[in-house]
């Protein structure tokens, strides 16, 4: 009788399996059902958090999105804390071009009036704002352009507190740049000498800014930072005493002072905890201070992570920090440890870890690594949400191969097949990402790329060929070779069946189902087992 009688029958069976991979009609409805099922699988308290975060993430306005986001479960943040944190990050520094325009018009007085309004808001009980703390951040750099701009401003307005502050801030940043980031023992003497020269120029300008406008808290913060840089306790005491007399609840001063108390700068955790207790008295009117109350725990956790202490103890310390306040650094480090906790320490908790990264992203821009972690976790839950994070990761780190894979997977799951193919191929250029990317690309082109059967098979064939050439033990590739040959030749090659059954990954539901289907059909058709059994 030959082989034709069962080859045609098996071809029909094999293609029936292939058809099961095509996108079903009513994609939106099916996606909604799948998403609901995926959300239901998330353990509490994270399930409600992810539902609310998914809705909030669709809000376009940055501030409104932050305000709509759910707070991290289990937090003990003071009333108004997240709101204040959101509003702080919505503040924008003055654009350099705006400052240049005022100076070019010879109207430094108008620039002063603008900054006066920002300063007044810091002391307003009804319309409090921290605008003045960020207003001149664009000038906090050591560039030659900023050197020229701040010099010109001071020449035009030597009696302006803001001109003195701007020039001092530039010189302080130049001092930090001259010193560099190495340990003192590794820093050349010449670097310290250059640092001292810049610092000596900055000091009288800070004092002059304070003399002209004693309420100008950014000047006290800059003076404190200068004291940290030069290891001058007298400058630190001067800055703290002056700021305390004006506003003991100033958030920026709290940040700088906590930084000065870190053990790496000669302080201690005892001193940090004591200052945190002092700050706690001001939480009712300045709830954002909770971030700095949490600083001792955040800093200790950061040190432990730098020592590769991925332990439950490190998690407990960092979780204490994020329960107290929404410290972005602590959220990031806590997520890092939770996502990479070894089995001996209880193992990773991906829902918790990614929830922390989402909370960091809520308040401020996070890293490409964090966006990739978020995208990977959300891929099955909400592909469109995952894709947004994959796109953010690419904007920050376009060369990362895993990021390219995530883009491919995100575009595939949102049915944008041409974009998916482009990014899968980019990922396949990397040895680590090649196998998975080629498998998914081949499956997309063969089963779900929107082309007619013959076109789909022709387009997928070169990638299936490459898979089998480089990874002859890849069961999915053998299954696709079987389906591709059915479409092309309407024929089942028993050697391909044998190789598929030999290499099928029975832990993969798709491969397990195909293998079981073939074994059943071959047995029912009476095909001798020695012709297809591995």
TrEMBL record:
InterPro entries: DUF4034, TPR-like_helical_dom_sf. It holds the Pfam family DUF4034. Keywords: Signal. Residues 1-20 form the signal peptide. Residues 102-226 form the DUF4034 domain. It comes from the Bacteria. This is DUF4034 domain-containing protein. It comes from Luteimonas viscosa. The lineage of its organism: Bacteria, Pseudomonadati, Pseudomonadota, Gammaproteobacteria, Lysobacterales.
